[in-house]
Write a structure and sequence with these properties.
Elements: H1 28-61, H2 77-106, E1 113-120, E2 123-128, H3 133-141, H4 144-151, E3 162-166, E4 188-191, E5 195-202, E6 207-211, E7 216-220, E8 226-231, E9 236-242, E10 255-260, H5 262-273
Parallel strand pairs: 1-5, 4-10
Antiparallel strand pairs: 1-2, 2-3, 5-8, 6-7, 6-9, 9-10
Helix pairs in contact: 1-2
The structure holds dinuclear copper ion.
Length: about 270
């Protein structure tokens, strides 16, 4: 019997009013970012308490009423070695997981799908090469390693391509349950558990393509292609916003990614092409 529904929890994949913490992770990278944050926060709290304790102690014991004649000590070799070595050890302990995360974010594993996101004043447009149902059948027969040979990279002239604009839904046009300033008319639909590559650029000024739950914030620079890898682990709708001041409607060019099963993705693509 499938008891999965008992443990079903609601994820937060959009910003909440007065939110201070992170949104729920949907990619291993975002999970890594949250873990690193908690890791560093541990050291941060210890250092904060220790420094505060020392300051209060110094103010208390060396107040001029309590200690009118000051000591003549100017240095002590042992204490100086200790307060140099310990912080540098702490820094190394922080640096190791930090660099590990940094380099794993740079890694683009053989992507199955490449999507190009282009920033405009003030909307996003997307271009991608779809793959078709017969290719999915074929893909299921092949190992993960070589399917990228068949379904990666850019359009060749004889293939159909998928291109659409994605505009924010104006406040007056919102339907019940839709999120203000976050909903778009055309969502980017992608399959879960698939290595995706996003190529990000701009047609006019600087924009930034950012989706918190996916752990992505990538600048869209005119004349330049930035790339980022995404691997979404669960189905859901992920909301993001342009994150580089790009003009008067900067706040009104959100990003919506809808992660679905591979079968749903294939039917979405075929609908889109008709
Ligand atoms: Cu586009 Cu801010």
């Amino acid at each position: 019997m499938n008891m999965k529904w008992i443990f079903q929890i609601a994820y937060c994949d959009a910003a909440e009013p007065w939110q201070l913490g992170f949104q729920d992770a949907a990619t291993p990278i975002m999970q890594g970012i949250i873990d690193l944050h908690h890791d560093i926060m541990f050291f941060l709290v210890i250092i904060l308490i220790f420094v505060l304790w020392m300051l209060v102690r110094v103010l208390w014991h060396f107040h001029y009423k309590k200690n009118p004649i000051p000591e003549r000590i100017v240095h002590g070799t042992t204490i100086e070695i200790i307060w140099t070595i310990i912080p540098s050890i702490i820094l190394m302990v922080i640096a190791l997981p930090s660099f590990t995360l940094l380099y794993s974010m740079d890694e683009v594993v053989d992507p199955a799908i490449t999507i190009k996101a282009i920033g405009h004043q003030w909307y996003w447009s997307y271009e991608g090469r779809p793959f078709f149902s017969y290719q999915v059948k074929e893909m299921q027969l092949r190992s993960v390693i070589d399917y990228s040979l068949y379904y990666s990279d850019y359009n060749t002239s004889d293939e159909q391509s998928l291109a659409f604009d994605s505009y924010m839904i104006a406040e007056d046009d919102l339907e019940l349950g839709q999120l203000r300033l976050l909903e778009v008319d055309n969502r980017v639909v992608v399959p879960v558990n698939t290595h995706l590559r996003f190529i990000i650029t701009s047609a006019d000024v600087l924009h930034s393509w950012a989706v918190p739950s996916l752990g992505v914030k990538c600048d869209a620079v005119p004349g330049r292609l930035n790339q980022t890898a995404i691997y979404i682990k669960r189905e859901g709708v992920y909301y993001g916003q342009c994150s580089e001041i790009c003009g008067t409607n900067h706040a009104f060019m959100p990003i919506v990614i809808e992660a679905v099963s591979l079968d749903d993705y294939v039917s979405w693509v075929s609908n889109k092409l008709d």
